[in-house]
């Protein structure tokens, strides 16, 4: 029903407006008597064989929702009904910011992709914490953190540390987002020397806490092999807990969208089917190079159960969906979990 009826209606409207409408709709729907139970019955698979222990955390199943969907931690309780094993909120920045000028979210329907240049739009730390205080789910919740757009390069680390300290009591693991193509000084954020400094600082803060929270690094799918080698070295040298591969891409090769369409859209990060193989290759390279010495969360172009299985076979311990969730609907999570069970 989603793909035949609901999606065509949604896709007739502006992507960002329909995103906000969907949030309101799910909020209202979930307040109706028995609605949450019905949704759980339709989409959840509760099977102990799906459970995964990763980073010292116990996940109900290995299928998560990637950051960017619930940016401000407004809907994670309700989204948990759809069968996810974990949900990642954010990207959260210390101060609230409106992000880049609209229009900034575009569908590539023929390619089953999305281009966005949202620019870390969110209401900031205080708002996210207030929303996280309303947590009534036992799902694992990850916190994706970044810097404010106007922050000076010498203060980047301070932004990440502020987010880390403030969110520490409220999330189960942290994602250090240095790979979004829609923020300034993108190159510095992926420099090995700076990553060692940033992650080292966060590890020091973590060690001061009574309970340490896992820290993972989110990387781009466009890194070359030398850069991926450096990522493996960074993980080993800082002893962080893992990597998310991968974020959105700036590469436009192989798209069905015309040159004119792409020029009209402009810059931004590409997600969805066009980066399926690219992100899987990155996962396999990291897993092979590191001899699977750290967990990898695989994300990028998962539109089917087979896409998720391919990423797991390549070396991913957990997977996340985002654009596939929009194109395929909530049944995708159930399909992936069913296929994982079949493969056991």
TrEMBL record:
It is an enzyme of class 1 (oxidoreductase). The keyword Flavoprotein applies. InterPro entries: Aldolase_TIM, DHO_dehydrogenase, Dihydroorotate_DH_1_2, Dihydroorotate_DH_2, Dihydroorotate_DH_cat, Dihydroorotate_DH_CS. Binds 1 FMN per subunit. Keywords: Cell membrane, Flavoprotein, FMN, Membrane, Oxidoreductase, Pyrimidine biosynthesis. Its cofactor is FMN. Its main location: membrane. Substrate binds at residues 71, 116-120, 177, 182, 247-248. Residues 50-343 form the Dihydroorotate dehydrogenase catalytic domain. Pathway: Pyrimidine metabolism; UMP biosynthesis via de novo pathway; orotate from (S)-dihydroorotate (quinone route): step 1/1. It holds the Pfam family DHO_dh. The active site is at residue 180. FMN binds at residues 67-71, 91, 144, 177, 218, 246, 272, 301, 322-323. It catalyses: (S)-dihydroorotate + a quinone = orotate + a quinol. Catalyzes the conversion of dihydroorotate to orotate with quinone as electron acceptor. PANTHER family: DIHYDROOROTATE DEHYDROGENASE (QUINONE), MITOCHONDRIAL (PTHR48109:SF4), DIHYDROOROTATE DEHYDROGENASE (QUINONE), MITOCHONDRIAL-RELATED (PTHR48109). Belongs to the dihydroorotate dehydrogenase family. Type 2 subfamily. NCBIfam families: PRK05286.1-2, PRK05286.2-5, pyrD_sub2. This is Dihydroorotate dehydrogenase (quinone). It comes from Pseudofulvibacter geojedonensis.
């Amino acid at each position: 029903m989603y793909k035949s009826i609901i999606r065509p209606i949604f896709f007739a409207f502006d992507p960002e407006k329909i995103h906000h409408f969907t949030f309101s709709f799910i909020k209202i729907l979930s307040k109706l008597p028995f609605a949450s139970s019905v949704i759980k019955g339709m989409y959840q698979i509760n099977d102990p064989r799906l459970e995964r222990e990763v980073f010292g955390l116990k996940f109900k199943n290995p299928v998560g929702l990637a950051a960017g969907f619930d940016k401000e931690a407004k809907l994670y309780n309700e989204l948990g009904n759809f069968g996810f094993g974990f949900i990642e909120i954010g990207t959260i920045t210390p101060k609230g910011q409106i992000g880049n000028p609209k229009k900034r979210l575009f569908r590539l329907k023929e390619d089953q992709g999305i281009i966005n240049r949202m620019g870390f739009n969110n209401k900031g730390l205080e708002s996210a914490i207030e929303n996280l205080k309303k947590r009534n789910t036992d799902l694992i919740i990850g916190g994706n953190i970044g810097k404010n757009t106007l922050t000076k390069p010498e203060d980047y680390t301070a932004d990440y540390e502020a987010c880390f300290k403030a969110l520490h009591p409220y999330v189960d693991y942290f994602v250090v987002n240095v790979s979004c193509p829609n923020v300034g000084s993108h190159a510095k954020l992926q420099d090995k020397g700076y990553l060692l400094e940033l992650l080292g600082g966060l590890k020091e803060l973590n060690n001061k806490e009574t309970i340490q929270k896992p820290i993972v690094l989110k990387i781009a799918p466009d890194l070359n092999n030398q850069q991926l080698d450096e990522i493996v070295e960074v993980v080993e040298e800082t002893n962080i807990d893992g990597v998310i591969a991968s974020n959105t891409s700036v590469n436009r090769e192989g798209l069905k969208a015309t040159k004119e369409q792409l020029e009209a859209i402009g810059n931004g990060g590409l997600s969805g089917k066009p980066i399926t193989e690219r992100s899987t290759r990155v996962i396999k390279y990291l897993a092979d190079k590191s001899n699977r010495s750290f967990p990898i969360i695989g994300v990028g172009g998962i539109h089917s159960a087979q896409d998720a299985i391919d990423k797991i076979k390549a070396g991913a311990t957990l997977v996340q969906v985002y654009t596939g969730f929009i194109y395929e609907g909530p049944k995708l999570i159930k399909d992936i979990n069913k296929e994982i069970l079949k493969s056991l």
